[in-house]
Design brief:
CATH architecture of the largest domain: 3-Layer(aba) Sandwich
CATH topology of the largest domain: Rossmann fold
Helix content: 25-40%
CATH class of the largest domain: Alpha Beta
Order of helices and strands: EHEHEEHEHEHEHEEEEHEH
Structural class: alpha/beta
Shape: elongated
Bound molecules: nicotinamide-adenine-dinucleotide
Strand order of the largest sheet: 3-2-1-4-5-6-12
């Protein structure tokens, strides 16, 4: 069995990861970390009944002892667990978003010592969506590009990591240009990519890239219907990284062979 620790185990994603790990024939939940619900059984917190793994305080990460840690927490929490994973030689699957440039550089540095799968979106559909917008950007050169994302009212970071990656993918095709986050006042469109973050209610996550020309537009949309789209992808990444021994920074492209 592959021993899995979960960081952010009491969160919306962490609870689903705990559930999916407990249902998986190859993975075994051995540890759960969080800053809340400490001491409670991770399975009970996840709604799947007692698993015999109590949630440990994330300030005790020196206790990390697993083959793989799956992190869906906050940027500081992810960095803490990655530092511990590096010290202990534990592989990591990181779904947390909203890292600063400095934090991204530290993750890159840590990946020289351990294999890490890092993805701002673990859903298979979104990874295919990134491929589709890449192709559309090649075919629709000269069209104006705008990205709109919609998420639930509790999301901390804006715009989403998925929207930022969509902009990055497109810039790789059409060349570097400014990203404009919303517009107001005197805001005549230039050559930029516009990115808009809509927040409300319980929307799991929607992304649309618009390629707008004179007289027509193409819209490519991904809609997540359930958070399981993300957690199942992260579980797939965990099973995949279990077989990888070479340290490095891996993406869902590697996991899915895209
Ligand atoms: N990559 C993906 O596919 C994907 C999908 C959904 C969400 N996310 C990202 O995953 C992260 C978590 O999302 P969520 O909706 O589960 O949020 P959430 O707020 O429901 O859960 C976060 C959990 O982390 C815990 N936490 C806070 N500080 C911590 C620390 N220092 N150490 C350990 N745990 C800590 C919180 O107590 C909470 O239980 C966010 O960054 C979100 O954007 C990524």
């Amino acid at each position: 069995m592959i021993k899995v620790a979960v960081n952010g185990a009491a969160g919306r994603m962490g609870r689903l990861i705990v559930k999916n790990v407990s249902e998986d024939g190859q993975l075994e939940l051995v540890q759960a970390f969080d800053v809340s619900r400490i001491g409670e059984d991770a399975g009970e917190v996840a709604g799947v009944g007692k698993l015999g793994v109590a949630i440990t305080s994330a300030s005790d990460l020196e206790k990390l002892d697993a083959d793989i840690v799956i992190d869906f927490s906050v940027p500081d929490g992810a960095l803490n667990v990655l530092r511990a994973a590096k010290d202990k030689g534990v592989k990591a699957v990181v779904g947390t978003t909203g890292f600063t440039q400095e934090q991204k550089e530290e993750i890159e540095e840590i990946s020289k010592d351990i294999p890490i799968v890092l993805s701002p979106n673990f859903s298979v559909g979104v990874n295919v969506f990134w491929k589709l917008i890449e192709r559309a950007a090649e075919l629709l050169k000269g069209y104006d590009v705008e990205i709109v994302e919609i998420h639930h009212r509790f999301k901390r970071d804006a715009p989403s990591g998925t929207a930022l990656k969509a902009a990055e993918v497109i810039k790789r095709v059409i060349g570097e240009r400014e990203t404009v986050f919303g517009r107001e006042g005197e805001a005549l469109r230039g050559d930029e990519i516009g990115v808009f973050a809509v927040r409300g209610g319980d929307v799991v996550g929607e992304h649309t890239v618009y390629f707008i020309g004179m007289g027509e537009r193409v819209e490519i949309t991904h809609r997540a219907q359930s958070r399981e789209a993300f957690s199942r992808g992260a579980i797939r990444a965990a099973r995949w990284i279990a077989e990888v021994d070479k340290p490095g920074m891996y993406s869902m492209d590697d996991v899915l062979g895209l």
